[in-house]
Design goal:
The complex is a heterodimer. By secondary structure, chain A is mostly helical. Chain A is built from 17 helices and no strands. Chain A has a single domain, classed as Up-down Bundle (Cytochrome C Oxidase, Chain A), CATH 1.20.210.10. Chain B has a five-stranded mixed β-sheet, with no helix packed on it. A five-stranded mixed β-sheet of chain B has the order 4-10-9-6-7. In chain B, strands 11-12 form a two-stranded antiparallel ribbon. Classes of the chains: A mainly alpha, B alpha+beta.
């Protein structure tokens, strides 16, 4: 374990002398049951990855169909009912079955124990169970889409959802079941962070990824039961005619919106905090620099989790909520912006006096910074109450949350996929193709969603099957951008699939990172992660000198 | 001029209400400060990247932590900016939520998939809202079925129509013209086709329109007392006579007068309407066609209607027929369109 050897390795030529480790979690068991019955957090992460990517493919296909339909003002390739189902299913799949489980399910599961010097998460069986619940939920959802297919939008607003001719129950139940998976994952992570930290890892020495995932887990276990409740209420409303949301029977449709957004707004942070988590790691490794303002970043993650729970009413500025409420929710929403801005400044300042290298994950970091700044600032704009009166339910809002949820979160997802690809599979992806597709995707995102900002300014409402002709030019531009985007994803899928088998062997630490997950363990790790109990005397991403625990050779 | 350039650059529609100006001004402030700050952040990142690019593979770097001043700066700058945006935005929001006492009320009801508008003293109609420019208008909005949202991009005004409650919003239109009302809350199959028009008149023109429209409003009841009374008051008035005779003859059992669909074509705007006939020909509904249809209704049946009208040959004499025609002519108030909105008609700026 001499750290001098790895320090002498030339960068960017990982694996030229390396061989895959003889023994690692991927070759520990080859049967189907060794995967489907595994309790290893790393294998469960891979299971998540398979389903999450499948969901991304399905949701993305719906998105492309929606964009194709919007090429012309009139009907293009489908009828109105099909279109309404398409955007609903796009939303449901992307939110409940892709975005929410994506980073916590895959990278949270894989990295959290490695970053804490633990052999596994606190409850391995529960971990496997949450994957099965997720698969069950996604399966129910997909089944419901094939049989009936909800057309309510992913928000299921009443009273329309009680009156729709389509079948919403299977889709609702799918999201309901997947919610339990989310709760169990969150619970597991929180207990893991509290009880499984290796010697030396104090709270203020936890990697920032862990902090953010921890904040996410808090939202998951506090928020998800509420959406479960809402979905049950919606079910009894539809099946038994309870009338909780029906004004004719003393109910209130706006109550539904309050309950729905009480979860669904924090859910945005379930999607974004893990993205921030990834970025804090990537920027430190790629600039070989300790995260500037570690405490500020850590606390702002918790801040977002807390304040995120109190901001839901900004979805109801024109829904008939009181003027005072609008003001209160508006000003609280601004606080989320402040916490995000703090992180942006700190990430930027992390580069100061670092040693920065431009790799594919770093390219995605740049994309992420851009999307979070403009996605965030357009969020500030819609939270400035009066502006929302114009923008609410227009394409401006669509573009805003796609900048955050697609822009920022997908940037982070792809950054994580590339950054941890060698950790997870022991092989490198082709850097050149990585950069090409990163550029393609960043340009594609902009070409898709900048026209949508302008469409919103012009006044085009969301969920329009047909639209007045003055909106066509920008819609065509947006669809063209979406096809670029699709191309980028296709390239990534191809080269990553090839790299799985034929990529250069990465070696234990191809980035020369001092992040905890790269220390004391080989890449890919052995089933029990570590030989013996590792100790972490230094803070993560301490690049002042050699660090204890760097693995130089496959064990 | 500068503001105009911003408007074109951001693809904003016409500013046609006093609220639109307020919204756009804050919009410009937010976007300009966003651009400045993000340019600064982006440039800083770029400069750092160039200055501190990796020169040797495994360089060591110092650990740097922010001092209190940097922390205050990082927290303070966004807080000040965001709260300032909020203060302006909320001030304008309170303004648009507080209708002036002299505002003119119009009741708005959304239903799948059309908008109904009603004035307290009449008239009411579907899919076209007439309002005067330069006078505050308060809309009292509700829905009959699911949630809709009343949205006029040129006014920057939007309010959800929620069943079971009236929501209010007010605005003051500044430019006469026709603007499109779009439904902004997803409401089912034809959500995207739930469009209506707002016609903004010069105030004097509006007053004339309203008086005219209120006069031609026919009361719901047949053989109604008010009509009979009015006829006695103005015995020579053909229009009032025609209304009374039409009620007596039972015309209103099948023909509406407010544009709503019924067994027969509506009387509203029937006069000089180009009608497509069931056999494919078209006809202009002038005096001779209307008279002919009363006497021999099955000769030229309007497309989309069943040939079920009885002949009034021998039941209505010539003066009575003329009175009914005159009454139908009076129902051309141009206040209702039968088709959906055809889009805005004001002059679009070149872009």
């Amino acid at each position: 374990m001499s750290s001098a050897t790895v320090e002498a390795l030339p960068a960017h030529q990982p694996g030229n002398t390396e061989e895959m480790p003889a023994e690692h979690y991927l070759n520990d068991g080859k049967t189907v049951f060794s995967w489907l019955g595994t309790l290893d957090h790393k294998r469960i992460a891979i299971l998540y990855m398979v389903v999450v990517l499948l969901m991304f493919l399905v949701g993305g296909t719906f998105a492309l169909l929606v964009r194709l339909e919007l090429l012309t003002p009139g009907p293009t390739i489908m009828d109105a009912l099909t279109y309404n189902r398409m955007f609903t299913l796009h939303g449901v799949i992307m939110v409940f079955f892709f975005m929410i489980p994506a980073i916590p399910g895959i990278f949270g599961n894989f990295m959290l124990p490695l970053m804490l010097g633990a052999k596994d998460v606190a409850f391995p069986r529960l971990n496997l169970m949450s994957w099965y619940l997720y698969v069950l939920g996604a399966g129910l959802g997909i089944w419901g889409m094939i049989n009936g297919g909800a057309d309510t939008g992913w928000t299921f607003y009443t009273p329309y959802s009680s009156m729709t001719p389509t079948q919403i129950l299977p889709v609702l139940m799918g999201a309901f079941v997947a919610g339990f998976s989310s709760i169990l994952t969150g619970l597991n992570f929180i207990v893991t962070v509290h009880t499984m930290r290796a010697p030396g890892i104090t709270w203020m020495k936890m990697p920032l990824f862990v902090w953010s995932i921890y904040a996410t887990a808090v939202i998951q276990i506090l928020g998800t039961p509420v959406i479960g409740l809402v979905m049950l209420l919606l079910t009894v409303e539809q099946v038994f005619g309870f009338g909780i949301f029906d004004p004719a029977r003393g109910g209130d449709p706006v109550l539904y919106q309050h309950l729905f957004w009480f979860y669904s707004h924090p859910a945005v942070y379930i999607m974004v905090l893990p993205a921030m988590a990834v970025m804090s790691e990537v920027v430190s490794t790629m600039s070989r620099k300790n995260p500037y303002g570690y405490k500020m970043i850590a606390w702002s993650s918790l801040g977002i989790a807390l304040v995120g729970f109190l901001a839901w009413g900004h979805h109801l500025f024109v829904s008939g909520q009181s003027t005072f409420d609008a003001g209160a929710f508006g000003v609280i929403s601004m606080m989320v912006g402040v916490f995000t801005a703090i992180k942006v400044f700190n990430w930027t300042a992390t580069l100061y006096k670092g040693s920065v290298t431009f790799t594919t994950p770093f390219a995605y970091f740049c994309g992420f910074l851009y999307f979070i700044v403009f996605g965030g600032m357009t969020g500030i704009a819609v939270a400035s109450v009066s502006l929302d009166v114009h923008w609410h339910d227009t394409y401006f809002v669509v573009a805003h949350f796609h900048f955050i949820m697609v822009g920022a979160t997908i940037m982070a997802f792809l950054a994580a996929l590339h950054y941890w690809f060698p950790k997870m599979f022991g092989r490198m992806y082709p850097e050149g193709w990585g950069l090409v597709s990163a550029v393609l995707i960043i340009i594609g995102f902009n070409a898709t969603f900048i026209p949508q900002f302008l469409l919103g300014n012009m006044g085009m409402p969301r969920r329009y099957y047909q639209y007045p002709e003055q909106f066509q030019a920008l819609n065509v531009a947006s669809t063209a951008g979406a096809s670029l985007l699709a191309m980028g994803f296709l390239i990534i899928a191809i080269y990553l699939a090839i790299s799985l088998k034929y990529g250069k062997v990465a070696g234990p630490n191809p980035w020369g990172s001092h992040g905890y997950e790269w220390l004391h363990t080989q890449s890919p790790p052995i089933t029990h992660n570590f030989h013996g109990q590792p100790v972490y005397p230094q803070a993560p991403h301490d690049y002042t000198g050699p660090v204890e625990g760097e693995v130089t050779h496959a064990a | 001029m500068k503001v105009d350039a911003m408007q074109s650059l951001l693809f904003l529609p016409e500013q046609a209400s006093t609220f639109a100006e307020r919204v756009d001004n804050l919009h410009y402030l937010v976007i300009i400060s966003t651009m400045i700050v993000s340019f600064l952040v982006g440039t800083t990142a770029l400069v750092f990247f160039i200055l501190y690019r990796r020169r040797k593979p495994h360089a060591y770097t110092p650990t740097i932590e922010p001092d209190l001043k940097a922390e205050m700066l990082f927290v303070g700058i966004p807080t000040v900016f965001f709260l300032a945006f909020f203060a302006i935005g909320f001030r304008d929001f309170v303004w648009v939520r507080t209708p002036p006492a002299n505002a003119m009320d119009v009741y708005v009801m959304g239903k799948q998939w059309m908008w109904k508008f009603a004035y307290p003293e009449g008239p009411n109609g579907v899919n076209t809202l007439h309002i005067p420019a330069h006078r505050p208008i308060r809309l009292l909005i509700t829905s009959r079925d699911v949630i809709h949202s009343f949205y006029v991009p040129e006014f920057r005004v939007k309010q959800d129509a929620v069943p079971g409650r009236y929501a209010e919003i007010w605005f003051e239109a500044t430019k006469p013209g026709t603007y499109q009302v779009l439904c902004a809350e997803y409401c089912g199959l034809d959500h995207s086709m739930m469009r209506a028009d707002v016609v903004v008149h010069e105030p004097a023109e509006f007053d004339e329109w309203l008086a005219n429209a209120q006069r031609s409003e026919r009361h719901e009841q047949q053989d109604s007392e008010p009509i009979a009374a009015a006829t006695q008051q103005f015995p020579g008035n053909l229009r009032l006579q025609g209304e009374r005779i039409a009620a007596r003859a039972g015309c209103f059992k099948c023909h509406s007068t407010d544009g709503s669909p019924h067994i027969g074509p509506t009387f509203l705007d029937m006069y000089l309407r180009k009608e497509k006939l069931a056999d494919g020909r078209t006809v202009i509904a002038d005096e001779s066609y209307i008279t002919e249809s009363m006497m021999d209704p099955h000769l030229k049946v309007v497309a989309g209607f069943q040939p079920v009208m009885p002949s009034f040959l021998g039941q209505l004499d010539a003066p009575e027929t003329a009175a009914i025609v005159e009454y139908i002519k009076s129902l051309s108030t141009n206040r209702v369109v039968n088709e959906g909105s055809k889009g805005p008609v004001y002059e679009l700026r070149n872009r």
